Amino acid sequence: MNDLVASENLLAQIFSDLSRERDGGAVYLIEHGLDRDAIEQLMYIVSQRAALHQLTRRAWQEFALSLCVVVTEIGYEYRGTGTDFWPLVESAIKVDIPIPQRSEISDLFRDCAIEFGAARPLDDAWSAAFPHIAWPVRNAMVPREVHGSLARLVREFLIQTGNPKVTNAALPGLKELARGFGSRRLESWLQDDDLVLPVIRHLVTGGTGDLGMEAGFLQRLTNDLRSESEVKRLERVIRARRLAEHQGVERLPKATYELLLDDAEARGLAVRGPSLTPAELEAVRSGVGAHLSKSTVTVGARSTTLERFLCGDTVFIGRPLEEVPRPQISGIEAPAWLERVIVPAPGLLFQDEGDDGYQTQLRPTDWVTPGIYFYEMVLEGRALDGWGDGLYHFSSGTPEGDAVLARHGIHVEAEPFVDFLGGLTLRHDGSTVSQASGRPVQARSRTPITIFAERLDQTESTEFRLPDDRWHILPMTEGIWSLSPLDTSKVAPIDLVFRDIEPPAPVRLSLQPDGIGLSEIARGAGALHLSTPITLHDMVLDITLSSSSGLSRTVRILTPSAPVRIAFDRPEFADIRTVARLWTKGGMYARLEVRANGLDRNAWSLATPEPEWKFDRRSAQWTAEGQETLEALICDPVISSTAFVLGATSSSALTSGYGLLRPAGGSDGALRSCILVEPEAGTLLSSIPRAIADPVERVTETQGYAHGLTVGFEAYVSWSLASAGSAVGEGLRSNARRKLEDRLVAALCGDLWIKREKSCRGLGTGFHRRLVTEAMQADLVCGTTAFSPLDDVQKYELAGYLEESFRQILPAPDLVVIPDGDMWPDMDDAVLDAWEKLSKKAMSDGAAELEFDAGNADGSWQKLVARAREAARLPELSALVLPAQRAESLERLPYESSHLDDLIAALVSSHLDVESRSGRWITPADLRALLHLFLAPERVMDDPEWRGRLLRFGADRSTARAVRYAALRYRAMTNVDLT
What we know:
Layout: H1 2-22, H2 36-53, H3 57-60, H4 64-77, H5 85-93, H6 99-116, H7 125-129, H8 131-139, H9 147-161, H10 171-178, H11 184-189, H12 193-205, H13 215-226, H14 229-244, E1 256-262, E2 265-272, H15 278-288, E3 296-299, E4 302-305, H16 306-310, E5 314-318, E6 328-330, H17 336-342, E7 349-351, E8 357-360, E9 373-377, E10 391-395, H18 399-407, E11 418-421, E12 427-428, E13 432-436, E14 442-445, E15 449-455, E16 460-466, E17 472-473, E18 480-485, E19 494-499, E20 508-512, H19 518-522, E21 527-531, E22 536-547, E23 552-562, E24 564-567, H20 574-585, E25 590-596, E26 600-605, E27 614-616, E28 621-623, E29 634-635, E30 644-645, H21 651-654, H22 668-672, H23 709-721, H24 727-749, H25 751-760, H26 767-777, H27 792-809, H28 825-844, H29 860-872, H30 875-878, H31 884-891, H32 900-909, H33 924-935, H34 946-951, H35 957-973
Parallel strand pairs: 13-19
Antiparallel strand pairs: 1-2, 1-8, 2-5, 3-4, 3-6, 7-9, 9-10, 11-14, 12-13, 14-17, 15-16, 15-18, 18-19, 20-21, 21-24, 22-23, 22-25, 25-26, 27-28, 29-30
Helix pairs in contact: 4-6, 4-8, 6-8, 9-10, 9-14, 13-18, 23-24, 24-25, 26-27, 26-29, 27-28, 32-33, 33-35
């Protein structure tokens, strides 16, 4: 009883507020604002009272809203002629409803209409035939019954009229057309012009500005509409019309607002011009018929020339109050289409791009996926001195963030269900893929999927299947197509547009420098250059390094655009650099071959390797084939990474402090270009302890014999960025870097932290890899009589297949719901899939077919998943991240799907003094600097203030621990070895 009283009071408050806002306009009971769990709870307590008192007016006089909202919810979902409505209500609330009580329920609806302004039934034939059902159906506002038929009606109307603008003048034609659909519910719904017009505009344009609905129901309605197949067909027709329109001045990009942030504080707004291409600028000149440089664009009190503005110039307008000034054009009589280009899209949403500076505007046409951070600027009611208080931060994919986006006409889209590759002029903006007519397009799906392709410019359709995660050529090469998966209706279709363009000129591949050798590639020197007379998009380069003994290594690199220069020090060439070092030592000859997406192929014979010197410990002499023996050698990687020459430099001169690595002078340029100067060849790492063993003190400068943070940071960056020219040098560099990182972590986070961290190494691997390890140790996936015996190589391959299968079953470890009961068949199916792949590979290699049978009971999988999830969270470390609220938020961050900006946002949101009005001492830029130190040292010096930013962590141990914890979790989830 108490729950029902509380529910009634809450609903009364909600609808009283709506009634005051509408000021005489209709209030719909579907706008209750309750979430799904609250609705189910309300239905339960209504059912309990109905079982005791039936549905008489006397029993529900004090709880009319609660009962009417429940019946309205059923009316919203109801799809039928009217005769089967009450059986659905009886089933939902688990009580029989005699016919006389139906009129009493209608009386309760009338009471709600009198007191709160709830909508009354329309005066039409359907409402007259079903007077009691008309109340809940009418209060459902836009019931699901009419979604599909309404979308089909609008689609037919657009096809017949060709006019995408729906005005009051179009309503009679829509109603006349609806009479041929045979839907009495649709004809009844179309009687309310004030409701019909904004809903149809929403279907056609996606705009929500004039709908005037409660925010929660608006989001629900939008989601329900987009789930209807007829609505999807309508959207495809609208997109086809837009794609087929002439790409002239009517389709120019618009200017945008931008938000200036400084130290996470809002400083002002600006308007940035649309950055037109030369061709688009010429189209504007022709359309205007005047000199653009003699016209002026003025925003508030500032101005610039029209030509500069159209080329992307920014006009800073400061802190507007209540309303943002619109750009005004003077000097010419501007046509309407040019004014639409100059005036930005309404709405003050800005994507959070980090590092402060200008944040770009989010517009209704932008494609937004879950996990994007953005700001909303609210000007209403803000004084000049409190202007920054109107800035609010949100994330897409959350209820709060999605509600803000929906209010501005932006809806969160799922990730594309398929990737595209085409080379040449293929472009992909998330919802539209365009390619040159007659050119093939390749597609790759994440899981096996069947695609339905419908041609929008002609009557034609086809189906094809992408059976695996390899690239497959699509069967179409011309026209405008809509691609959607048949397996699910939860993702938006993708348009594939083939357009006519000029054929591209040939491309050319070259190697820089010309005389590059195997040793240079081994240390990452040199580059490939793909030159093109026009800009090409999504080029694929297949690069193969072959040795004189027949061995080879191949890497595939996708370049977003060309011309492009691809240096051999990129991470993609790590495997090639490794074998190049080995082949250099073996004196092999090598050949480099590159193919650019079938457009050009070139090959180069690399320079002859230099002789390999070997150290004879018995004679203490260095020998090389065809060379005289030498007593002492040093290597100068600047000249060559393999040539050893006589040297008088002693190893003691190279091992004082960090002088072994750090170049002379402390400039950032010297740190970026530092090269590992190796000690005498043959010197052991243990003989130079000062380079790696001295502790780093928690002070900014060096004091006495200790090393302060400044020196430690510079040395660590140097060890991270140095180029080692041989296997000995690389071992020296990586070992010293790892030891020095531990010393820095101990200085920043404390000895207790580093002790715990070392004990956790091996535990902090990614959730899925940890689950594979746990499953193998528990004999759930191999090692029993149910499985064929495997050698070490096959176990390694099986582990890879298992990780892939587990990722599909459990895509988000922090959201895994572990089922009750003894069996978890989905996990056994994942094991069988992995074994099937392993068996197919074994048979392709000529081995016998493998036998496998997975069936694990007694809750085995449940225990392993829970244990792997806990181990992957590093609980031993999170206990040291203070306060506890910070540790909990960082534990549950989805590291697998996060980027560096996501880590920054999570750390900022969990920061101790994030609410401080005086500003944070540890700013997002500072957090980024320390994350870069642990995750991407090559980016540390991108910020000229990097030393000062890193030193701030010397006084904030808890924040340093939080950053280190996030870095370790991110390393684990992105396959970076912690050991």
